[in-house]
Design a protein that fits this description.
Helices cover 63% and strands 0% of the residues. It has 6 helices and no strands. The model has no long low-confidence stretch (mean pLDDT 89).
Length: 103
């Protein structure tokens, strides 16, 4: 899902051309991921990307570094890291028990 799709689907009404609104969205996504991580759940932000980009932006990898996954530059180079995060997120939320318990 792209940031733009997230804004539309969640009816956030944010404008990504506005620097403040874009940074605020990034902060909220980081806060959600930090909370999910602290509860032992996978990072939802692994599923949100910048339109036109195949991978996450630097902010995602910096978040992962803050959460203890390793150096953000190395994580960004590791093609398997992001896929592992995405897979873990999909598997967790496809589990009916997890979905009904946490959503």
């Amino acid at each position: 899902m792209t940031f733009q799709n997230l804004i539309y689907e969640a009816e956030l009404g944010l404008n990504l051309d506005n620097t403040y609104e874009k940074s605020r969205l990034t902060e909220v996504i980081d806060e959600i991921s930090e909370e999910e991580h602290s509860e032992g759940r996978p990072l939802l932000s692994a599923l949100v990307s910048t339109k036109g980009m195949k991978n996450q932006g630097d902010n995602f990898f910096r978040l992962c570094e803050r959460l203890g996954y390793g150096n953000w530059r190395e994580l960004k180079k590791d093609s398997e890291f992001l896929e592992q995060q995405r897979k873990a997120c999909r598997e967790f939320w496809l589990n009916t028990d997890n979905f009904s318990t946490y959503l």
